[in-house]
């Protein structure tokens, strides 16, 4: 570590004690070892922490594919980690949809709603992949909640889903829920 050279002749040549300048030398080997360990640690952690990417395949522009009301589920991603949903597309102004609210929690969250709708579609049409989920974000929704909604699609193996703009009618229905 640190090294000090001390003279051991005790002043024999000059008849008395004489102060001698001592040289000090600090061994930097442990400091260099620590530096290399830190560099190695940070290089390994940055290469291991790769960004997580969610693939989103967007359809080509053009006319949309018609979807039956009984095969559709609409999710309205709102603010404060609240997600609203209703069955169908909500296109009929004479019969407005009944909006329900849920959350992203694992128990009794939106995942339960999606799995229940998959069972209904499978019972009616024979294939749970016939389910189409329309995801609509409100102005107050966060990026995190949108990613959570897309994660639910992946977790529940939803084959067909679409990101759609929210309509003015849906905004008014949500405002009526939260006066």
Question: What does this protein structure show overall?
Answer:
Residues 14-23 have a biased composition (Basic residues). Residues 1-24 are annotated as: Disordered. The chain crosses the membrane at residues 31-49. With 179 residues, the protein is of the alpha/beta class. It has a domain at 69-177: 2-Layer Sandwich (Nucleotidyltransferase, domain 5), CATH 3.30.420. Helix content is 33%, strand content 17%. It has 4 helices and 7 strands. It has a 5-stranded mixed beta sheet with strand order 5-4-3-6-7, covered by helices on one side. Strands 1-2 form a two-stranded antiparallel sheet. The termini are far apart. The relative contact order is 0.13. The mean pLDDT is 81.
